[in-house]
Automatic annotation (TrEMBL):
Protein transport among keywords: no
Residues annotated as transmembrane: none
Keywords attached to this entry: DNA-binding, Transcription, Transcription regulation
Organism: Trinickia dinghuensis
The name this protein goes by in its record: TetR/AcrR family transcriptional regulator
Lineage, top ranks: Bacteria, Pseudomonadati, Pseudomonadota, Betaproteobacteria, Burkholderiales
GO molecular function: DNA-binding transcription factor activity; transcription cis-regulatory region binding
KW Lipid biosynthesis (keyword) present: no
Pfam families from the UniProt entry: TetR_N (PF00440)
Highest taxon of the lineage: Bacteria
Residue range(s) of DNA binding per entry: 38-57
Coiled-coil stretches: none
Ranges where the HTH tetR-type domain occurs: 15-75
Amino acid sequence: MTTVEEPGRRERKRLQMVAHLVSVAGRLFETQPYGSVTMEQIAVEADVAKRTLYNHFPTKEALLAHWLEAELKHDLERLAPELQRRNGFVARVSAELDASADWCGRHPEHLAAYLRHRFLSLGEASPQASTQADPDRGDIAQLWYMLIAEAQASGELSDRCSTKQLTTWFHHLYLGTLMRWLMEPTIVLRKEFAQMVALFMDGAVQRT
């Protein structure tokens, strides 16, 4: 007699496998050049069949994206107390951008591969759809949204545009700044982020 596994239990097992694969891949990404890490190596290190790995992540870039987003979530959690101590949108968003600049400075190759993956997958069905319930995923745009909403509520930012619209524009500025830095690595990313925030504020500041 075949035992039918409960959907909830299957989902928990799937998430456990995803977390295991991401953890193994992340360890390899941190200790080896990104280009030298292969899917076959990840499968061997994770002690799973290649088919199992590809069933969860069709490409190495998809694994990288999941790992980076999980790292981002953990970083944002560690940064939360510092954000709470700061007053105002500029001070709070600058704390996160400084931390982002430090991470990008240590992982330029990973960042370039991640951005290529994100832009090449534009218009496709989101690979995150099947992992929406995964608590280890993070999205920096969620932080932008929260900070912008708080700034609009306090009157620091104008409410002429919706929070969602301002978040989209700010996120595009963020991604554009990262791409400019990757193409011109002599740029000081912290200073570039500061100029980006100044540009955003000049257009979004509340005017009396």
